[in-house]
Amino acid sequence: MGLTVSVAGASGYAGGELLRLISAHPHLDLGAVTAHSQAGARLGDVHPQLVSIGDRVLTSADPAALAESDLVFLALPHGQSAALAAQLPERVKVVDLGADFRLRDASSWERYYGGPHAGTWTYGLPELPGQRAEIAASARVAATGCYAATITLALAPLIAAGVAAPTDVVVVAASGTSGAGKSPKTHLLGSEVMGDLSPYKVGAHQHVPEIKQATGAVSLSFTPVLAPMPRGILATVTAVPLTDADPREVLRAAYADEPFVHVLPEGRWPHTAATAGSNSCHLQSTVDVDSGRIIVVSALDNLGKGAAAQAVQCANLMLGLPETAGLSVDGVSP
Q1: What is the DSSP code (8-state) at residue 144?
Q2: Domain extent for 220
Q3: Domain contains 324
Q4: C-beta atoms surrounding 164 within 10 Å
Q5: Which residues does the entry assign to the active site, renumbered to this chain (predicted)?
Q6: Would you call 314 helix, strand, or coil by DSSP?
Q7: pLDDT classification of 38: cutoffs 50, 70, 90
């Protein structure tokens, strides 16, 4: 028997991906599996892909049942994690996949999410300098947003090294439809999405303050795009250079010892299918021959490194397990 982990919000896409990873994890046993509207449903009917645990039944989110675990994953809609987390004893470690505890600045929370700010937990991106040790020492960790992970891994080392200016950062990023959650929405119907690209939340996406906080960017123009695919994010990040340093070499040096962040061979560019099902982020960089701007292209699985797999990576650190346990660097393309 290993350590026991529970999942609150297990009926959603991120919750299902968490369950897939946990069920195959060499050191974790699955405890309570909870949902709201799907409570009472057989897990295999909600997530047909989870054959090995399909006979489990989703229960309502009982804090006492969740508290029997060593760690609880909260895969709840934004704004709903704080109330449940407050009912869990301090001895139970918690990883929140929602946004409730990511931001340090209360005014940014109120501006982009609305309502009172619940507080700030340790930020769950191990690849940031010093963050791995902080995560390992923490009982409460806020996993990053999917767009935030994709963009931060591309941009943070360049700003930290003084190679890219923290001002005038421009990002265009396309995401698969699973990033919008599992609730039925007309604009996410197959007939609406297939054969189409559409921008959304232009100029006011909620991940902007998180990206600025994590990267040190001062101003950021971010255009998210809905792409006709179920999962994956491809971000194109551009910034003004401050030195003649090769941005690709800066990224290579920053991630040389990282198991899940890969700067691709020169001339090969990231694409989303190569990261599907993995905890990997693929990066490539160059300098635009016309504008002189730095360009970094970043790809990851929004349900993997952008959500569930990243949360498991943090949980491994928090529980004293090998950081890579139960996680794949390899995608499942095609």
Answers
A1: P
A2: 147-302
A3: no
A4: 31
A5: 146
A6: helix
A7: confident
